[in-house]
């Protein structure tokens, strides 16, 4: 067998992105091309580069509360701690939490969805 040839055939298994790269930079877990995300935390139906289907592997519904609720609790605790430590003007708080909350929730959802997606793809022997 020539060097670098895998038993999976012509699918390139080297250079596949990890969970963080897939979640944060939107790299396809199969081919490594950009474009995994359709919206802030929505997977595309299928990869534009390799055609891998993602839509049916996307976790949806109440299971995502397990991700959003702990993040929400942590954000509330962080805001209470911050308010205890320094008394910031209201406009600063609105600007700060207006940025931190969506970034934290979307980031957590992307990471959780990527973990589930990759586990489901591996279970289906698609990775
Ligand atoms: Zn792809």
Can you walk me through this structure?
- The protein is mainly alpha-helical and 127 residues long.
- The protein has one domain.
- The protein is built from 3 helices and no strands.
- The protein has helices spanning 19-25, 65-85, 90-123.
- Zinc ion is lined by residues 28, 30-31, 33, 47, 49-50, 52.
Percent of residues in β-strands: under 5%
Spell out the helices and strands N to C.
HHH
Bound molecules: zinc ion
How many H/I helices?
A: 3
Mean pLDDT equals 87
* Total separate domains: 1
Determine the N-to-C terminus distance: 21 Å
Specify the helix fraction band.
Answer: 40-55%
Radius of gyration: 19 Å
Low-confidence segments, ≥5 residues, pLDDT <50? 1-12
List the SSEs and their pairings:
Layout: H1 19-25, H2 65-85, H3 90-123
Helix pairs in contact: 1-3, 2-3
The structure holds zinc ion (ZN).
Brief sketch in words of this structure:
The protein is built from three helices and no strands. The chain is an all-alpha fold and 127 residues long.
Throw out a few tags for this protein:
mainly alpha; disordered N terminus; binds zinc ion
